[in-house]
Design brief:
3 helices; single chain; mainly alpha; about 90 residues
Amino acid sequence: MSASVWGSSVDSLKRKLVGFVVITGTLVAVYELLLTPEARKKLVETGSKVKEVMYQLKSVADDHIGTYVEEDVIQNRLDVEAEWAKIGF
């Protein structure tokens, strides 16, 4: 690849990183300077509730779809190796 391609992607990455740092800094400043202690507490509580609901939704969706699988990895490996041995590998 040419140097200009690498330079372009590095510049893009730098811009994204600077943007991320600016946005994060702004959010922290707003949280610390503009919110009252009561508002901060409510924000944290709301975030916790949203997180809890998301986990509940994921659990319901996994149960409904049937994608949640708990398997014994060691036993599964032994079973697969035994099956391969049966067919001669």
